[in-house]
Amino acid sequence: MTEARAAMGRIFRAREPRGLGEERVEGLAELAARVRELTEAVVLTDVDDAEVAAVAAQVAELTARLNTARRQEPPSIEFGADGAFRHLAGPVTGRLNPIAPPVEVAVHEDGTVRGVFTLNAVYEGPPGCVHGGVAALVLDHVLGMAAAANGTPGMTATLDMRYRRPTPHGVPLTVEAKAVRSEGRRTFVEAHITGPDGKVTVEATGMFVRPVH
Ligand SMILES: CCCCCCCC(=O)SCCNC(=O)CCNC(=O)[C@H](O)C(C)(C)COP(=O)(O)OP(=O)(O)OC[C@H]1O[C@@H](n2cnc3c(N)ncnc32)[C@H](O)[C@@H]1OP(=O)(O)O
């Protein structure tokens, strides 16, 4: 597992926690949660034009306030005390990233990665359903996590999707991924999303390659 940790460090620049500090993480997570609500409100609002313009001006002011102090880059992937890693600013599981649903994931002892999440109307593709590219985003991430949980982290080299039935938005979904085999630098992983009725809506297979450098 130490080798896998070193590989994670190399591939994803994962680091020992650099001390954002739990209090700051909670504060930024709260901010991201409020912005997620704002995003949904923007997509669904039906207020009049004057109110839209007034809110747009206020949001621009808030953005300027946040920009008075900027990091060079988003917080990196960090290892936790248990050896697992967290992607605080990532677009799938990142609690600090407003575009992440976020998907809450757990890595189980047998290497299975399971997550629960709800995608709201912001992620709509066909009416009432999740955009196929968003499903691919979630699946790519958990496939990558499962490759890492297998001790063989890598970069996505191939991602094959099979959309079995529409994935509804606004309801709880689950995602599950597990590495099935590894050959040299290549790891093959399978994953699927299940709807609230227990039926699989999307299946994916991914091949992850550990870069040499
Ligand atoms: C933190 C946790 C989860 C995060 C998950 C997020 C996952 C991501 O989003 S990763 C970002 C998206 N992916 C990328 O940007 C990858 C871009 N591609 C690359 O960097 C490189 O092409 C990379 C690393 C995949 C392979 O590069 P390189 O190491 O030079 O591969 P190379 O030596 O040519 O091939 C290695 C092996 O893999 C095979 N292979 C490589 N690419 C492919 C491919 N696309 N299809 C099929 N086979 C491939 C080769 O045939 C070779 O096999 P063998 O060893 O049997 O000959």
TrEMBL record:
Keyword annotations: Apoptosis, Cell membrane, Cell projection, Cytoplasm, Fatty acid metabolism, Hydrolase, Lipid metabolism, Membrane, Transit peptide
Reaction catalysed by this enzyme: decanoyl-CoA + H2O = decanoate + CoA + H(+); dodecanoyl-CoA + H2O = dodecanoate + CoA + H(+); (9Z)-octadecenoyl-CoA + H2O = (9Z)-octadecenoate + CoA + H(+); hexadecanoyl-CoA + H2O = hexadecanoate + CoA + H(+)
Signal peptide (from-to): none
Xref: InterPro entries: HotDog_dom_sf (IPR029069), THEM4/THEM5_acyl-CoA_thioest (IPR052365), Thioestr_dom (IPR006683)
Pfam families: 4HBT
Subcellular location, record wording: Cell projection, Ruffle membrane; Cytoplasm; Membrane
Domain of life of the organism encoding this protein: Bacteria
Top-tier EC class: hydrolase
Name of the featured protein: Acyl-coenzyme A thioesterase THEM4
Residue ranges of domain Thioesterase in the record: 128-200
Gene Ontology biological process terms in this record: fatty acid metabolic process
EC number: 3.1.2.2
Entry's Gene Ontology cellular component terms: cytoplasm; membrane
Gene3D superfamilies attached to this UniProt entry: Hotdog Thioesterase
Family the UniProt entry places it in: Belongs to the THEM4/THEM5 thioesterase family.
GO molecular function, one term: hydrolase activity
Membrane topology note: Peripheral membrane protein
